[in-house]
Design a protein that fits this description.
The protein is of the alpha/beta class and 411 residues long. Helices cover 37% and strands 14% of the residues. The structure holds pyridoxal-5'-phosphate (PLP).
Length: 411
């Protein structure tokens, strides 16, 4: 008899996107002529920059010639890409990182899920609430979340850090000490950010309490405000206490191409069961070299092209395109008297439902009355109830059309 990892059976079906699909399908059957616009799912719509496509073509051609063909590459990623990351994402911001602290991967989701491999099952985990569901589900799978409580919303071994309008979406330091703290800024789903001084509070807390911060910076490219750090390592001491995850998915439209990276600093303080300090960088390297054979050469060449002057200009244009959508949506919703959060330094807009409507009730009204699909906030955790997420990743024309519908909405 072969036993499975029972933790997988604890996970409830992920109903959020299938429920949304069901409701949208039912609506379309009743109203076949309605043009439904989706501002729900967080995928990009802009094509990949031509500088990146050119680099891809060139790399593909190299693979077809005996003298330029590449087989297995370094599991940690090619140095040509690590060096670009090092200079542009860190040194230019005054952050000292070394190339062997950068691990190139096929995206942030894999690394966020896999990082649990090197962390004990006994660790207590804290998540902000609402939250990107991957942090919770991967800890359920890894046996760190305990069991689901009666309310179907909370896991009894997780520490929840509510982020709502009441605390301005700034999580309060926990009363119970967590070993691992997930922070995601700019935040998905709320689109809110942490200032340098707020992030410093968390780094100081983690240093004092010997906690590990898993910092997800997948949306850092959307930051405009000078006071908002792009990397947790801009905060003094963070290299002793944080791992940072980055993604090219939203930065450069790589959701289909797949590439990202993770920084595991050599100074990071993690301990074995005898309370002796271990080298986390070495541990992660061991994990990656055993279980991962690296990102394809052609994709790493494509990622490298993002950092060329023309690549930078082109990806910035797409980011600006999305942020224009965000601004337009935000203004239109505010003009209708709705409470809106996020959308300034992130491609997400977090809408407070009016008149105390539940997330799903507001979702239904938006679908039936404006033919717009959002994502109910409750799908991101208990503190998401009473909110709805809209994304700025739609086409400009669709965003403008959505706005005109919202303007004429009998709210
Ligand atoms: N982290 C956050 C907060 C996200 O919203 C997403 C994607 O939606 C990811 C990570 C995953 O990024 P990737 O496409 O690099 O796996």
């Amino acid at each position: 008899m072969v036993s499975i990892n029972d933790n997988y059976l604890k996970l409830p079906e992920s109903y959020l996107f299938s429920d949304i699909k069901k409701r949208v399908t039912a609506f379309k059957e009743l109203h076949p002529d309605a043009r439904v616009i989706s501002l729900g799912i967080g995928d990009v719509t802009r094509p990949i920059a031509s500088a990146v496509i050119d680099a891809l073509h060139e790399a593909v051609n190299e693979m077809g010639h005996a003298d330029t063909f590449r087989g297995y590459g370094p599991e940690q990623g090619y140095q040509f890409l690590q060096e670009k990351i090092l200079i542009h994402d860190f040194h230019d911001r005054g952050v000292e990182i070394e190339t062997d602290e950068i691990f190139i991967s096929d995206g942030a989701k894999s690394d966020l899920g896999n990082i649990g491999d090197i962390l004990s099952v006994d660790n207590k985990v804290a998540v902000t609430d609402p939250v990107y569901p991957v942090y919770v589900d991967t800890n359920v799978m890894g046996g760190r979340a305990g069991s689901l409580e009666q309310d179907g919303q909370h896991w009894n071994r997780l520490i929840y850090l509510p982020c709502t309008a009441e605390n301005d979406f700034i999580p309060e330091l926990p009363s119970e000490r967590p070993d691992i703290i997930y922070l995601c800024y700019p935040n998905n789903p709320t689109g809110t950010t942490l200032s340098r001084s707020e992030l410093k509070k968390w780094v100081d807390y983690a240093l004092e309490n010997e906690s590990l911060i898993l910092f997800d910076a997948a949306y850092e490219a959307f930051i405009h405000d000078e006071n908002i750090p792009h990397s947790i390592y801009e905060i003094e001491g963070a290299k002793e206490t944080a791992i940072e995850f980055r993604s090219f998915s939203k930065t450069a439209g790589f959701t289909g191409l797949r590439c990202g990276y993770t920084i595991v600093p050599k100074e990071l303080k993690l301990y074995n069961s005898s309370a002796e300090k271990v080298n986390a960088n070495k541990l992660w390297n061991r994990r990656q070299t055993t279980k991962f054979n690296g990102v394809s050469y052609i994709v790493q060449r494509a990622a490298e092209a993002i950092y060329s002057p023309i690549g930078q200009t082109q990806i910035r244009a797409s980011i600006e395109y999305y942020m224009r959508n965000a601004r337009l949506l935000k203004t239109a919703l505010q003009n209708r008297g709705l409470q809106i959060y996020g959308g300034d330094n992130a491609p997400y807009i977090w809408v407070k439902t009016p008149n105390g409507l539940s997330s799903w009730k507001f979702f239904d009204r938006l679908l039936h009355e404006c033919h717009i699909v959002g994502t109910p906030g409750i799908g991101f955790g208990p503190s998401g109830e009473g909110y709805l997420r809209l994304t700025a990743f739609g086409r400009y024309e669709d965003t403008v059309e959505s706005i005109s519908r919202i303007q004429n909405w009998n709210l």
